[in-house]
Design a protein that fits this description.
About 40% of the residues lie in helices and about 25% in strands. The chain has about 190 residues and is of the alpha+beta class. It has a three-stranded antiparallel beta sheet with strand order 3-4-5. Strands 6-7-8 form a three-stranded antiparallel beta sheet, with no helix packed on it. Strands 1-2 form a two-stranded antiparallel ribbon. The relative contact order is 0.11.
Length: about 190
């Protein structure tokens, strides 16, 4: 029987259920939360994730954008309403460029935690979102499993094949031991270091 990984969000908590396809079809008809094309193929491995990580990241960028708006954009808008030039030597071009630059930095900072939390492990493969589509790597195609150091001493697991690699941050998972056990169980023995 084929199973789907359905994510249900209720009051800031995220629960993942494995539901048989016949029940998943009925659930989709009632809830309309996700479509069948968005579900991963094959049976998903349940790995609980720390979704709360997105809250401080969101608060940081929302606070930063509010500060930029209050410090630069709002005084320029008020000056324009009074028929004056933008304050402190700012031009409208530089104000718009600065706001766009900050928005790009915010999206780039939000992207990595979001990608880590949207990584899906199934019995057949590992996949994670890209800007256009998903990176899908079958367990049998993995040639190297290694640990690399990232910023501030945080260790990141890298799954590498001949064509691509997927980096996994264990801090995004509630049970790092289950994550490591799933990788050890499914990756080829020759790829493990």
């Amino acid at each position: 029987m084929r199973c789907f990984n359905i994510v249900c969000v209720r009051a800031a908590s995220c629960t993942t259920y494995l539901i048989p396809s016949s029940r998943a079809d009925n659930l989709m008809m009632r809830s309309k939360t996700v479509s069948l094309s968005q579900l991963p193929q094959g049976q998903s491995l349940y790995l609980a994730k720390r979704w709360w990580i997105l809250l401080p990241v969101s608060a940081l960028f929302l606070g930063g954008f509010s500060f930029v708006s209050w410090l630069i954009t709002w005084p320029a808008i008020r000056a324009a309403q009074l028929g004056q030039a933008p304050p402190a030597g700012w031009s409208w071009t530089s104000i718009i460029a600065f706001n766009c630059l900050f928005a790009c930095i915010a999206v780039a900072g939000y992207w990595e935690p979001w990608v880590q939390l949207r990584t899906v492990f199934t019995e057949e493969d590992v996949s994670r979102p890209r800007l256009f589509g998903r990176t899908v790597m079958t367990w049998s195609s993995i040639t190297h499993v290694g640990v690399i150091a990232a910023l501030n001493g945080v260790k990141v697991i890298e799954l590498r094949s001949r064509e691509q690699s997927i980096k996994i941050n264990p801090l995004c998972y509630k049970r790092q031991d289950k994550l490591l056990a799933a990788i050890r169980e499914h990756a080829p023995a020759s790829a493990l270091m």
